[in-house]
């Protein structure tokens, strides 16, 4: 018999998770492996079922076999027969065309039968793992067939994948459609970065360590850098990327979410809305980009061909489904200020790009250096204190501080202290989707974006995206070689301030 993890038994988790897009890439690469690992860690409830929806004509056994192969390929835990047997019996497959309203009655009956069989009590998670153009259609389909109605119990929750709109106007339009059917607190807008271990650790590091929190302001911090560097190109997703670019794909969502956690004030408590309210204030306090600031503080880039790890890779304009004169940015670097008492005067530098020479997602906090009165008089370089939160691929915290070099009389040496959460003794860290699915099931929306945060992020991002379209002739693409760390102008952005990007420190 399957045993629920005791610690979570009191949550009312019994439910059916309905995955629209059950045959798609996201379901196979992320959702099913995450569900398997939740079974592995005994975090799924006893009364639970997964209904995958797709158009493909296939039987339940074939579908389960395909899921087995995906888990085998992508799961962080190896397949164990006992846990797979448990997951397998939870999975159902239903072939319907979700653009056809008449098909929803079939879905309704299908779910009601599972309710009886598995005692899932009418609770539902509707997970939309489909292209964004279908979000509205599916929500309307659920509404018209009375599948979404809820007065609290049984509960109905909606999970929406990114992108949430392509600008403020489309995001507002989509949101208006969603809230006609689901209440704001039943809508879970996924930003999978928020499910990553070290993103959740930002608040713990800040609010559980007096040594950091007491220094966490413009008096002691020289600058903060946030970078999400990728080695990968766009692969087969050129079509999607053409309508997105780095600003929409990475900055509007992941980077702004990380920035708000790094810069927010302590919330009054750890409840969802208290945290989201503090995050929102940060986004609203970002200094407005005037035309001069846009020209001086924003750098766009697009990769040309180059060499990564010894292999020649093609230019963005040569990728599948990308026009040869594409003006889509695959790189953004920018400097911004947060105009509040804590941060005024401390710059935040942001960088994200594809086909860079390193794959790393990190937050680097550079503390101010001390005056060179006692030490460093003869040494030109004084290494600053650096706190680095490593998000991926390394997961951990790095701290750099100065000590005396044992081998000389007076030299100072920058000691590098590193913690790694990927050590064999600790086991591998859970995937973001594990945590996020678990939170949806227990009704905790803290790691999902509230509508007003999404809205404020679009207001910020749109201003920069509009500038890009207005002045795109100025950008001479391609302007960085694959395998480098981006356009020369991105380095100049910091050099102008007497600073540099902290790449691969200690890593
Ligand atoms: N893939 C990723 O790593 C990733 C990462 C982050 C976010 N996302 C987001 O997640 C969403 C899904 O992406 P994906 O890459 O998984 O897409 P995908 O591989 O193209 O899958 C699309 C799914 O939708 C189903 N579908 C399409 N039209 C249908 C219809 N009329 N009726 C029933 N089913 C229909 C397809 O079923 P059939 O195949 O049976 O036709 C398939 O299961 C997108 O919003 C994407 O932006 C994806």
What attributes characterize this protein structure?
507 residues, alpha/beta, Rossmann fold, Dihydrodipicolinate Reductase, domain 2, 2 domains, eight-stranded mixed sheet, six-stranded parallel sheet, 15 helices, 18 strands, 35% helix, binds NADP nicotinamide-adenine-dinucleotide phosphate
Description:
The protein has 507 residues and is of the alpha/beta class. The protein folds into two domains: 6-161, NAD(P)-binding Rossmann-like Domain (Rossmann fold); 194-363 and 450-495, Dihydrodipicolinate Reductase, domain 2, CATH 3.30.360. Helices cover 35% and strands 20% of the residues. The protein contains 15 helices and 18 strands. The two termini are 45 Å apart. The mean pLDDT is 93. The structure holds NADP nicotinamide-adenine-dinucleotide phosphate. NADP nicotinamide-adenine-dinucleotide phosphate is lined by residues 21-26, 29, 53-56, 97-99, 129-132, 161-162.
DSSP strand count:
18
Which architecture of the largest domain would the CATH scheme give at its second level?
Answer: 2-Layer Sandwich
Indicate the overall shape: globular
User: How confident overall, as mean pLDDT?
Assistant: 93
Largest sheet: 8 strands, mixed
* SS content category: alpha/beta
Please give the share of residues in helix: 25-40%
Tell me the number of helical segments per DSSP (H or I, 4 or more residues long).
15
Q: Which cofactors or ions or other ligands sit in this model?
A: NADP nicotinamide-adenine-dinucleotide phosphate
Rg, Cα atoms, Å:
24 Å
Strand order of the largest sheet: 8-12-13-7-14-15-16-17
Distance from first to last alpha carbon: 45 Å
Note the beta-strand portion: 15-25%
Uncertain regions spanning at least 5 consecutive residues: none
How many domains, in number, for the residues? Answer: 2
CATH topology of the largest domain: Dihydrodipicolinate Reductase, domain 2
Q: Mind telling me the CATH class of the largest domain?
A: Alpha Beta
Tell me the name of the CATH homologous superfamily of the largest domain: Dihydrodipicolinate Reductase, domain 2
């Amino acid at each position: 018999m399957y045993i629920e993890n005791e610690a979570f038994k009191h949550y009312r988790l019994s439910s059916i998770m309905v995955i629209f897009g059950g045959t798609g890439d996201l379901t196979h690469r992320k959702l099913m492996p995450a569900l398997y690992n939740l079974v592995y860690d005994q975090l799924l409830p006893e009364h639970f079922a997964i209904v995958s929806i797709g158009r493909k004509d296939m039987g339940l056994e074939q579908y389960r076999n395909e899921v087995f192969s995906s888990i085998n390929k992508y799961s962080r835990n190896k397949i164990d027969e006992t846990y797979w047997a448990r997951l397998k019996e939870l999975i159902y497959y239903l072939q319907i065309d979700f653009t056809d309203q008449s098909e929803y009655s079939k879905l309704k009956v299908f779910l009601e039968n599972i309710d009886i069989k598995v005692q899932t009590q009418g609770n539902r998670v509707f997970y939309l793992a489909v292209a964004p153009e279908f979000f509205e259609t599916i929500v309307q389909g659920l509404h018209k067939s009375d599948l979404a109605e809820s007065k609290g119990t049984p509960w109905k929750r909606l999970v929406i994948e990114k992108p949430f709109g392509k600008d403020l106007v489309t995001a507002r339009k989509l949101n208006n459609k969603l809230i006609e059917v689901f209440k704001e607190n039943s809508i879970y807008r996924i930003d999978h970065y928020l499910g990553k271990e070290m993103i959740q650790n930002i608040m713990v590091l800040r609010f559980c360590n007096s040594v950091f929190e007491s220094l966490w302001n413009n008096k002691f911090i020289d600058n903060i850098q946030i970078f999400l560097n990728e080695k990968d190109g766009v692969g087969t997703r050129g079509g999607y990327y053409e309508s997105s670019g780095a600003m929409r794909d990475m900055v509007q969502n992941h980077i702004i979410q990380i920035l708000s956690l790094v810069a927010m004030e302590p919330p009054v408590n750890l409840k969802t809305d208290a945290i989201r309210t503090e995050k929102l204030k940060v986004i609203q306090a970002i200094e407005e980009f005037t035309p001069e600031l846009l020209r001086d503080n924003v750098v766009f880039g697009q990769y040309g061909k180059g060499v990564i790890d010894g292999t020649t890779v093609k230019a963005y304009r040569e990728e599948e489904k990308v026009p040869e004169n594409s003006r889509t940015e695959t790189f953004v670097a920018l400097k911004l200020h947060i105009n509040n008492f804590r941060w005024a005067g401390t710059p935040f530098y942001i960088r994200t790009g594809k086909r860079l020479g390193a794959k790393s997602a990190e937050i680097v906090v550079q503390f101010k250096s001390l005056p060179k009165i006692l030490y460093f008089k003869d040494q030109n370089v004084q290494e600053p204190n650096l706190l680095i939160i490593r998000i991926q691929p390394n997961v951990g915290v790095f701290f750099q501080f100065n000590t005396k070099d044992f081998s000389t009389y007076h030299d100072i040496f920058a000691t590098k202290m590193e913690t790694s959460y990927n050590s064999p003794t600790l086991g591998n860290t859970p995937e973001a989707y594990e945590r996020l699915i678990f939170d949806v099931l227990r009704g905790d929306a803290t790691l999902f974006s509230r509508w007003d945060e999404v809205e404020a992020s679009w207001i910020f991002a749109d201003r920069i995206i509009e500038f890009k379209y207005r002045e795109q002739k100025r950008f001479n693409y391609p302007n960085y070689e694959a395998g480098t760390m981006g356009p020369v102008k991105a380095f100049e952005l910091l050099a102008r301030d007497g600073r540099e990007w902290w790449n691969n420190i200690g890593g």
